[in-house]
Design a protein that fits this description.
- Helix content is 71%, strand content 0%.
- The protein has 205 residues and is an all-alpha fold.
- Helix 8 packs across helix 10.
- 36% of the residues are buried.
Length: 205
Amino acid sequence: MGQRGEARRVQAYDGELGAAVARAQEGDEAAFAVAYRLVQPGLLGYLRGLVGDDAEDVAADAWLEIARDLRRFTGDGAGFRGWTATIARHRALDHLRRQKVRPRPTALEQDVLDLPGPHSTHDQALETLSTEAALALVSGLPRDQAEAVLLRVVVGLDGPSAARVLGKRSGAVRTATYRGLKRLARQLGVDGVTEDAPRTLGDST
């Protein structure tokens, strides 16, 4: 799917989500279930990258807080995704502190950072990130890169929204996302493709 088509899909998705959230804030339980269904897959993928096998437990804690504070939320569908990601991140960090677990950063080879990076390389990496294997690769990135990629790709936040979740500047998140996707592209064997290359990994050679 091209970038314009993807943008239209996300806009439609956020429209449905925003409407569901508005109804849920008025006490519509079925609407809350719709919002949960739309947000949970991306949120769970994000949490898997942070806390691994404990993601479902952390997500459950996050949704308890989301449900409790729902009436205080203001914004549209995209804003709701950012808000829920912020809550989930706080719960994940609390969990890591309780478990005394520190994510193990991996060294990022400088030669990967120095490679030219055509947009199609990153697009191809993005196409594969819905798989469990790809999520495992993301979890091996340095922490800042992993979180940026998960928020941008798995949760579907735009740059400014991801920056707000992480408490960083948009430029820093953009750089972290770029470097993370560049590393993933190398690991997935799609580096060096040209702008005319296919946009899905399955079609690349």
